[in-house]
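Dear colleague,

Thank you for sharing your sequence with our group. We've completed the structure prediction you requested, and as agreed, I am returning the results in plain text so they can be pasted directly into your records. Please verify that the sequence below matches your submission; if there's any discrepancy, let me know and we will rerun it promptly.
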Amino acid sequence: IQVLNRAFMYNEVPGKITSESELVYSDRKGWSGSACSEANSEKNGDLGVSAALDGNANTRWHSAYNINGNDNCTEEHWVKFDFNRAETFNTIYYLCRGGSNGDIHAYQFDLYDENGEIFKTITGEFEIGKTENHVTLDQSYTAYSIKLTALSTQNGNNFAAVGEFNVANPDPYVEGEDLETTKATLLALVQDMNEALYTKAS
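Please find the predicted C-alpha cells below.
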C-alpha cells in the first residue's frame, strides 16, 4: 500500500489499477418487500423478507413451512423487493447457503417501472453449490422494484430462500479511447498549472 499526500495525475491511474472494477452496491435504505409466504423460525434463521436485507448471512427470507416441514405455498415461490425510489444497476446479487433447502437454481427476475409495470424479465440459473451469486445484465436498468421467482431449487425440494439480496453497478474508471479524450480535456484545463507547486509523496 502506498500512501500519498497528493492526488494521482491522470497518466498515473492506469498503472495503479491491478484488478477488475469492484461493484458498488445499493445501501438498501428504505427498501421493503413482500413474498408468496414467509417462515417464522428464529432458531433456524428462516424469517420474513426483511431478513434478506439485514446484512446478516445467518438469517434469510424463507418460504413458509409447517412443523412437518411441508410448504404451504401453492404457487411458484417468489419474493419482491420494493426500492421505494429509482435504482440503476447492471448486476443482481443473490446470497444462499449453497445447496440447502430453499436455495434457488433456475430463476426469473422481473423489473418494474415507476408505474408498477414489468418492463424487463431475466431468466437463468444460479450455479449449484455456490453461495455468492452475481447476475450481470446486458446493460444498466433503472427500476423501482424487482421480483425474484424460484423456477427450481438446487436440491429439488419445494422451498425458496434468499440469504441476502442487492443490486450493484461497477465502480467505473476511464480507459482506452475514453482515457485519451479525458487526458486531452484535462490538459486543456490545467495547462496553466505549475507542477513545481505540487506536494510530494510521503
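Summary note from our side: Strands lie at 23-25, 32-35, 46-47, 60-62, 78-95, 106-112, 118-125, 132-150, 161-162, 164-170.

Kind regards,
the structure core
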